[in-house]
């Protein structure tokens, strides 16, 4: 009998991880040394230490890593993610800035973003919400209108999108993310408590990122705590540009190969902006991201 095994990280709790073994069993896992900073969704190699615990030896190669970073801390959201589901609501008003950042973070990591517009039953707020989403509609981002209170509509509209994929659900608070999660994963609360018992982690470890299986759809859904900030300081200038795919064709006509599309003469992006072919709010966000980046680069 060998004590080597492997599994997938289901949740991260500060010092230790919950890892699911190939047979579905959950174990408690401790990293060896400081270098093993595993994220939820990572596939990891283990050395079993008894039946219920293991040492995390190494992280298998990642397809991608969704990340955010602020001045004070950086945080790995999740690894090996196929799509990012961003929940916004008709009410309260969602932040265009956060939505734009989440999209840029997804595109720069090679992850497909999908916007879930929730609370479409609040009909009087729909025109404004759709107008705010207009720039993203133009970009070809899939926008799914849903009412989280109607389980049948959630199943019909969202489950097919999740089939066979690993998706991560994020949203500002009050957008209805928990309502959606409870509809998609009816036993989410029970699963969370089972994990806590199995891991002896205490009953109140509810704020961490966690991966759930979707038996009906045959995929996985990662729930991430509500976010109020989505810093992208870890992105370099090329990464930031990848977050604005609508610049791609226009930048080919920039006079300078290293054009930053802010003030340069002969800039194809600025020309498109002036013609209204690139949305002003999108270019403004791009400039904010570059400014925040250079401010932080000068600080360190
Ligand atoms: N009218 C309406 N209210 C909703 C819908 N989904 C969620 N809510 C309400 O919005 C509030 C916030 O929902 P919650 O799931 O806690 O949001 P979270 O903070 O994003 O997890 C709650 O009062 C929900 O009942 C919806 O589709 N329509
Ligand atoms: Mg919630
Ligand atoms: Zn340019």
Strand segment tally? 13
Nearest-angstrom radius of gyration?
Answer: 21 Å
Coarse shape? globular
Number of domains: 3
Spatial order of the strands forming the largest sheet = 10-9-8-11-13-12
**What share of residues are in beta strands?**
25-35%
Helical fraction equals 25-40%
Cofactor: Zn(2+)
Domain EngC GTPase: 79-228
InterPro entries: G_CP_dom, NA-bd_OB-fold, P-loop_NTPase, Ribosome_biogen_GTPase_RsgA, RsgA_GTPase_dom, RsgA_N
Binding site for Zn(2+): 254, 259, 261, 267
What do these coordinates show?
Helix 2 (126-138) links the parallel strand 9 (112-118) and strand 10 (142-146). The chain has a six-stranded mixed β-sheet with strand order 10-9-8-11-13-12, with helices on both faces. It has a five-stranded mixed β-barrel with strand order 1-2-3-5-4. The protein has helices at 96-108, 126-138, 151-162, 177-184, 188-199, 237-242, 248-251, 268-274, 280-299; strands at residues 4-13, 16-20, 26-31, 43-48, 53-59, 65-69, 74-79, 83-89, 112-118, 142-146, 166-171, 210-214, 219-223. It has 300 residues and is of the alpha/beta class. It binds guanosine-5'-diphosphate, magnesium ion and zinc ion. The site of zinc ion has 8 residues, from helix 8. Residues 251, 254, 259, 261, 264, 267-269 line the site of zinc ion.
């Amino acid at each position: 009998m060998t004590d080597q095994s492997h599994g997938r990280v289901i949740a991260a709790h500060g010092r230790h991880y919950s890892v699911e073994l190939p047979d579905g069993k959950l174990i408690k896992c401790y990293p060896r040394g400081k270098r093993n900073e595993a994220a939820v969704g990572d596939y990891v190699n283990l050395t079993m230490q008894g039946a219920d615990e293991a040492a995390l030896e190494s992280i298998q190669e990642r397809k991608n890593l969704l990340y955010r970073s602020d001045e004070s801390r950086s945080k790995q959201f999740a690894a090996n993610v196929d799509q990012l589901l961003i929940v916004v609501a008709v009410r309260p008003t969602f932040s265009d800035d956060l939505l734009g950042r989440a999209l840029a973070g997804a595109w720069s990591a090679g992850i497909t973003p999908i916007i879930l517009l929730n609370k479409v039953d609040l009909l009087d707020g729909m025109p404004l919400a759709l107008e705010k989403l207009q720039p993203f509609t133009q970009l070809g981002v899939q926008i799914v209108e849903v009412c989280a209170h109607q389980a049948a509509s959630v199943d019909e509209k969202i489950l097919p999108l999740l089939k066979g994929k690993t998706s991560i659900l994020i949203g500002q608070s009050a957008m209805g993310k928990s309502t959606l999660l409870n509809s998609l994963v009816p036993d989410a609360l029970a699963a969370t408590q089972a994990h806590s018992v199995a891991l002896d982690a205490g009953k109140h470890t509810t704020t961490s990122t966690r991966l759930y299986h979707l038996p009906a759809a045959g995929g996985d859904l990662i729930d991430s705590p509500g976010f109020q900030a989505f810093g992208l300081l870890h992105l370099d200038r090329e990464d930031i540009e990848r977050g604005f795919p609508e610049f791609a064709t226009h930048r080919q006509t920039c006079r300078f190969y290293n054009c930053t599309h802010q003030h340069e003469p002969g800039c194809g992006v600025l020309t498109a902006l002036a013609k209204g072919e690139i949305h002003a709010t999108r270019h403004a966000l791009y400039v904010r991201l570059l400014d925040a980046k250079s401010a932080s680069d000068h600080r360190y």
